[in-house]
Amino acid sequence: MRILIIEDEHRLSNVVKKGLVEEGFAVDQAFDGEEGLYLAESEAYDLLILDLMLPKIDGLKVCRELRNKKIKTPILILTAKTKIEDKVKGLESGADDYLAKPFAYAELKARIQALLRRSHNEGDPILKLDDLELDPAKHIVMRSKKTISLTPKEFAILEYLLRYKNDVVTRTQVTEHVWDYNFDALSNVVDVFIATLRRKINKGFPKKLIRTVHGVGYKMK
Ligand code: CA
Predict the structure, then answer these.
(1) What is the Å distance from ligand 1's center to 201 Cα?
(2) Are strands 132-135 and 127-129 parallel, antiparallel or unpaired?
(3) Exposure of 157 in the CB half-sphere (CA atoms within 13 A)
(4) Which fold has domain 127-220?
(5) Distance 152 CA to ligand 1 centre (A)
């Protein structure tokens, strides 16, 4: 899953980014509202973390512009403003949740997971297919209750495929949602990762769980 942090406090942005990258998220940063709006419109994000007081274009305006343009990416507002009317204004502008600074990283993380679940209409926090289970919050993958050890990128790809298990997922989608802005999309790295991932989750099991749809991409089955 790929997240854009729109926050002008570099230190805070970097701390949040570091935490999220360690969790396996692909993370981009924008340090003012204009850059944030541009990236949110042009790149494929699964969630936006948006500060309210930003240079150039303020957070509420960024939020409204995105919703006016029918961009439905979940938005978590992060701000020092804690007055009730500010929270209401944020939610009325189309944001999905609100977290006041200073915040505990654990709470941010829990809210991100909840928003991702909500945006995918997932009631269960564990993603499942057949005997395969993936826990996005705890970073655990199991098949028939046996833990499978994956690298953060393999984990991120499997999480993405499981969130879209009813669809065929293209290589471009995987690239856009698992890697950040600096990734070279021309390489065949996705295929390499899928091959290793397949080997790891299918080893010792008669049922093979990632199907290649030739010329299109992949499907969990
Ligand atoms: Ca700010």
Answers:
(1) 43
(2) antiparallel
(3) 25
(4) Arc Repressor Mutant, subunit A (1.10.10)
(5) 30
- What's the gap in Å between 7 CA and the centre of ligand 1? 6
Ligand 1 center to 76 CA (angstroms) = 14
Angle at 220 between CA 214 and CA 221, to 5 degrees: 95
Distance 101 CA to ligand 1 centre (A): 10
Q: What are the tens digits of pLDDT across the range 68-125?
A: 999 999 999 998 877 888 888 888 999 999 999 999 999 999 999 999 999 998 889 9
pTM check: above 0.90: yes
Domain ranges in the chain are 2-119, 127-220
- Is the CATH code 3.40.50.2300 the one for domain 2-119? yes
Using 50, 70 and 90 to split pLDDT, how confident is the model at 150?
very high
Q: Rounded CA gap, 93 and 45, in Å?
A: 19
Q: If you measure from the C-alpha of residue 54 to the centroid of ligand 1, how many angstroms do you get, rounded to a whole number?
A: 5
Number of H helices, E strands in the chain: 8, 12
